[in-house]
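[09:14] KT: can someone run the structure on this one? pasting the chain below
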Amino acid sequence: MDIKAVCSSGEKIEVQLLNEYNMVERTLFYWSKLYTEDLKAGENYSDLNRTIAINILGYNLFKVHQNFHSVYKIQNIQTGELFTNLLEIQCIELPKFSKTKPDMNDPLHRWLLFLTEDEDQQNLMEVFKLDQLVSKADEKLRRLSADEEVIRTYQLREKYSNRSRNHVTVSCFFFSIYPHAVDIIQF
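[09:31] RB: done, structure tokens below
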């Protein structure tokens, strides 16, 4: 797991970044753990909170469509009736996003431009002007990047996990999509 947060509404959100070549199974595993972790024996099932898993992928997971953002829920396949809103899984495939024309009016597009490592500086400056949250995330990332202890800790984690994306950036993206998230529990 890369980022785990709880919203003030009680919703739980988890962001997965690393490609382990078993993303579907891994997503369901971490989603289920997150969904059930707070329920103690004898407690009421109605106390379970909505749980959202977000996969930001540096590769294409789904070959059958070209949508870069997919949202999955459990529903009746004949009627389309939603079984529950307690489960949501989102997949964002960055290679597919890179082939689309970004819409600067869409907050998700602005964040994905920010997360894209090779994004044009002119586009980034426009993103910063349009989106104060992205601009603040960039400022925070720059401050953290100048802190030697933070860099050392990040490098150790990077070495251990062999990850390539900056988790601070993703957590800021995550909080702009889910502004009621109040507490990062784990990176």
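[09:33] KT: thanks! Residues 162-187 have pLDDT under 50 and may be disordered.
[09:34] RB: yep, looked fine to me
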